[in-house]
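Moderator note: this is an archived Q&A kept for reference. The question asked for a predicted structure of one protein chain; the sequence and the answer are reproduced below.
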Amino acid sequence: MKKSRIFTVIKCLFLAAFVICTIVISKNRYKISGFISLEDSETDYETFWDFIYNEYPFTEVCERKGADLKKIKEEGYKEIKSSSPRYSQNTYISFYAKLCEDITSRYFTGHLYPASMRDYEYCMTVSDSYFKLYDVDLMNSFYRVKPSYSVNSLIGSGARMVKVDIKIIEEGKIAYVRIDSFWAGGYAKEYIQYKKDMKKFFLDTEKYKHIIIDVSHNGGGSAECYDSDILSYNNIGRNIRQKIYFLCSKNKYTELNPSFKNNQIDIKEVPNIENANTKKNTIALYEEDAASFQELAPGYAPPKDRRYWLLISGKTASAADSLAGLCKASGFATLVGSNTGGLGHNGRHSPIYMMLPKSGLLIKFDPLYGLNSEGYCVDEVGIAPDIYNLPGKDALETCLEEIRKLEGKN
């Protein structure tokens, strides 16, 4: 009898343990094969969409470009419910990369996409006031496995590091340099080589009358690649600058932005504000962008009538878009091609990051809605060229035709 009771107790305990395990597994079935539960992934998803509607400043722009946000959200929810048991950090970050592609029509308006390992590693090397909004341990846990993803972007050429392609089009008169990326971070050797190549290019072409700089396939990177290695060398004896205007709403991200505290102005002071086309962004700010002159070499003296030409297109974005705006505002170069892809005029403290609360995944974005000189959202219409491409010609052909016209007149 005693053995029978013991056996019965053991059976009851085993049965109770089995029931408890079944309940835990049913509630957290995802954790059997993934890193996050379905319930937590749904919380992340709702947080993401609350951000898109209430804190991301470019919601209206994305909708005007054709994004059906309601449909995108509904389809994403179906994806989460059907595939959550298979999620790893890689599939999770890829899901949000595709989501951002759909929202921005593959232009990544406002730098909206998941933070890559390169972004994450950069975040960890700088003092970021936005970290007070994050669970840093959770963020570190997500990126510990080094998740990666690919994107299908309509901006840039996909070039991964800064390098130059130099051609002499007409000896002693017309020189050309193509730069398809301004990515310097993480490519120390390549950036050092780029600096050497650019310095040599300008020294070798010191007496040339026309310098063509092609960023028509440049998706951006570091502003240093154009500031200290293009503009500063050639802006002989003077600094160049422009004032950029922004709009935003008041939220936890903009309140941490130094410009929000220091550079607010009355929205009526913004030039051509009637073209801004936004209802959700009602606070106006400004910043000054500048390139400081530095001497390239003792005695360096290019022709006083030298002309600089900047080739641009819809693939010209981020830092390359910033270069286009600064060249146009200062008159440093004549812009040739088609409107840029934007992303370069949303504040010097951009992009920043929001964190999904259950996974630790960072989503990159710009908190300010930057305007061009005509008052339009730069991420929507870009920076307009001074000379548009002629039908059937690319920007270089159009530029060379303009040069021939000038030389003919002279």
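Archived answer notes: The chain is about 40% helix and 15% strand.
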